[in-house]
Amino acid sequence: MFADFFIKRPVFSSVCALIILLLGAISIPTLPTARLPEIAPPQVQVTTTYVGASAEIVEDTVTTVLERQINGVEGMKYMESASSNDGQSTIIATFDPSRNKDIAAVDVQNRVSIATPQLPEQVRQIGVTVNKQSNNILLALGLYSENDEYDSIFLSNYADLYIVDALKRINGVSEARIFGERRYAMRLWLDPNKLASRNLTAQDVVDALQEQNLQVGAGQIGQPPTVDGQEFQLDLRAIGRLTEVSEFDDMVI
């Protein structure tokens, strides 16, 4: 009987249906819809590099020092670390899902700051990086030259200059890295026998490079305050970093 009333009055039924539809559309934004909770626990990654050190040395002098300070930070569930023979130290701290990832990163950064004075000088110069990110790879992109005009070094530097920074600016992207990264550089191969015969070490060569391969500002001539009659102000330019193989050959160690 109830259905017959609406069947015999199609116009009235259509109006009622439209009213119900409009009321539903209006009430949707005000409904107490429950949101799905965070399933993946937040992770904070700590990375640094000890150039020239073996995995054992990195573990003893860098990774262990950082782990001791990071351990016990509020809300942390567990921590994992890795030290590699290329001098890389990586620590991943996993927190409870209820923990705010921004606050967790700040807490880890504070612990890292406490441990920094205990790290080797070379590590402190490079710095320790703290990022809110998962160690899992979300997407991998391949960069190549169709006609083999550009080599891997050029492509790696192109990606570093024009692609990586653009990817990092995308909302939700924490880190973008170049696998197999290669940079334009002057590489020096040392003869250990000749170094030993002159009572030198690899660190002596590094110290000489840092002292003689500098980029400095030479200053100005005629910069105020000056004497009366001074009309010109000249910028001085000095030879900067070494760029040729012959210049490195002439270095004094």
Summarize this entry quickly.
This protein is an alpha+beta fold and 253 residues long. It has 9 helices and 6 strands.
Structural summary, described in words:
Strand 2 and strand 3 (88-95) form a beta hairpin. This protein has helices at residues 2-7, 10-27, 55-70, 101-115, 121-126, 152-168, 192-197, 202-212, 245-249; strands at 43-49, 76-83, 88-95, 129-132, 220-221, 234-235. It folds into 3 domains: 43-132, Multidrug efflux transporter AcrB pore domain (Alpha-Beta Plaits, 2-Layer Sandwich); 137-185, no CATH class; 192-244, Multidrug efflux transporter AcrB TolC docking domain, DN and DC subdomains, CATH 3.30.2090.10. The strands form 2 sheets. The protein has a 4-stranded antiparallel β-sheet with strand order 2-3-1-4. The protein is elongated. Helix 3 (55-70) crosses helix 4 (101-115). The mean pLDDT is 85. The chain is an alpha+beta fold.
How many domain regions?
A: 3
**What characterizes the major β-sheet?**
4 strands, antiparallel
The level-1 CATH class of the largest domain: Alpha Beta
Structural class: alpha+beta
Number of strands: 6
Spatial arrangement of strands, main beta sheet? 2-3-1-4
The end-to-end span amounts to: 106 Å
Q: Based on the structure given, which CATH architecture of the largest domain is correct?
A: 2-Layer Sandwich
Gyration radius over CA? 31 Å
Poorly predicted regions:
none
N-to-C SSE string, H for helix and E for strand: HHEHEEHHEHHHEEH
Q: Give the mean pLDDT.
A: 85
Q: Estimate the global geometry from the Cα principal axes.
A: elongated
